[in-house]
Amino acid sequence: MKVTLERKNQPFHFEAKGKSGLAVNIDSSTPEASKGSSPMELLLMAIGGCNAIDIVSILNKQRQEIKGYRIELEGTRREMEQARPFEAVHLKIYLEGDIDPAKARRAAQLSFDKYCSVSISVRGCIKVSHEILINGKSID
User: What is the pLDDT of residues 23-54, one digit of tens each?
Assistant: First the structure.
């Protein structure tokens, strides 16, 4: 896999492109002049996006009727002098539709443990947890 980053303007605005050719804007985390997401936000988005694709794919194969899907991710960062890496990430998965809770649980478990390359890549250094709500009600 290969991606490229190109500096677009001062001080820290970059444009990244992968194989698809679609651009992703990256900037520092300072809100005053941000033209894109911070690298840490992108990591959260990658974890959420990877798991979302897996879970929806698994539930679709099980003929579950998904009318809505949303994930809220919250990362807890370690306080250090320089870098502030994530120590934990929690996903709150909101499903809407006629979905069997056992199938939703199993789809999430398969995603986190077997299929999502992003979650698997970070699991040695970041504690990733999740909860699932179907039609506004927790199934955990």
Answer: 999 998 777 768 899 999 999 999 999 999 99
Strands 127-134 and 86-98: parallel
The answer to whether 48 touches 71, Cβ cutoff 8 Å, is yes
Q: Where are the alpha helices (DSSP H) in 1-140?
A: 39-61, 101-110, 117-122
pLDDT digits (tens, 9 = 90+) for 113-129: 999 999 999 999 999 99
Classify residue 3 as exposed, middle or buried by CB count within 10 Å of its CB (0-12, 13-18, 19+). Answer: exposed
Query: In terms of residue numbers, what domain contains 17?
Result: 4-32
DSSP state of 88: E
Q: Are residues 17 and 84 in the same domain?
A: no
Q: Is 27 exposed, middle or buried (0-12, 13-18, 19+ CB in 10 A)?
A: buried
pTM check: above 0.85 = yes
Q: Which of 21, 28, 97 is nearest to 65 (CA)?
A: 97
